[in-house]
User: Fold this.
Amino acid sequence: MQRRNFLVAAGAAFLAGCSDIGKTEWFGKLVDGAQDWHRGLHRALGGGRITMAPEYTIADLSPFFRGNGSQTVDTPAYRAAEAQGFADWRLAISGLVENPGELSMDDIRALPQRTQITRHDCVEGWSAIGEWTGPQLSRILDAAVVKPEANFIVFHCADNLNGSQYYESCDMDDAFHPQTIIAHELNGEALPVRNGAPLRLRIERQLGYKHAKYLTGIEAVASLDDFGKGYGGYWEDRGYQWYAGI
Amino acid sequence: MGTMPRKRHALPTRIWHWVNALALIILFMSGLNISNGHRRLYWGDQGFAPAQAWLEVPRFPGWATIPDYYSLAAARDWHVLFSLVLGFSLLAFMIFAFANGHMKRDIFARAREWKPSNIWRDIREHLRFNFDHGAGKYNILQKISYASVILILIPLMIFTGMVMSPGMEAAWPWMTEIFGGRQSARSLHFLAAWGLFAFFVVHILLVIASGPIRQIRDMITGGKMEGNDDAAA
Assistant:
């Protein structure tokens, strides 16, 4: 009986220890290092080529593409835009670019389009397959001419989740990746509200929370410090990894 | 083997044993926390609805998870960190175990050991709690279980885990197809984890039944080669 009590106590101490270690600064640094190792391995094992997320066929489409996180934007402005079919929606291009400005929905549809059938993997564990259409982000960034001092692209969103503005960010490797698109269609139709109407990011080599919905602007920046809590995204500010390719 | 007395367990084996044990415990318990994030399993590439699931997984309580409260973000931190420890320590152990002959000498079974009469005898001896039998270091049941863990279950955990990383999948998309899709890999990851848990339970029980002090001490100090008592002088 005493031995059993000892084992239970040892187990509880181990668990409490792990929970405490998990909150320390050095553990956070260790995890950041591990994240870089994973990312380095993902790129190295790609053998120097541009690694591509698998693409599927129409037969593989999920019968229903669920929405998760924000399912809509609860503001009068968004309701008004939705009532007009998002005809006047604008995507602002700002920050460290030579040609800042705004793109209308017609501007976005007039750019060369990429259609890709890809799998969306939520950090929770589920997956869904959808067909996404929109211009490659690289086209938009090339037209805007990103300045050399820019290290990241920040994605600004209309939605507010649990009282905070949603936002995301990625590095230039993913920003200029061929499968990174600003999608305005899902399965051949205008993007549904639950999936981020009228514009959402598709960044196919990373998990779902990176795929920012309800896009209002993209901003080229040198550092992520000035956004949210400085970790580069809504979920990143809440402890999730910035590199969501793991 | 030179002038050094032969130890029961070589140094690389001992280091790997304890590093691997720690990594597996942390990965298993943080994995249970991650499982709580979406408690359904599917086959194929996709799945999120109850109708698509082949298994509804129970919610694992806080005393079984790392951290000891539900946090997908914190559990993933532990998982992402110790997945590297698991993978690279197994790789290092494999290199040593093949190079120093441990794998061939102690883990791989000879043809005669596979005879049903030998396996049957070994089962009977285990049921009598007699563990000191058989010609080599390990008997056939031990060889089967150690080889299953080292060569099948842990590699299966590593590779299905890699398939579930979208950044890794983009580098090696063929691996997803080998496992029949991402959700199949996720299901296999879950099943193999419980396979390792089953090994863990039996392993601990047999260590307790076969002289736990000596077993644990030898896995720390290396111990003495059996039947070679004067070699340690």
In short: Residues 92 and 233 of chain B are 30 Å apart (CA to CA).
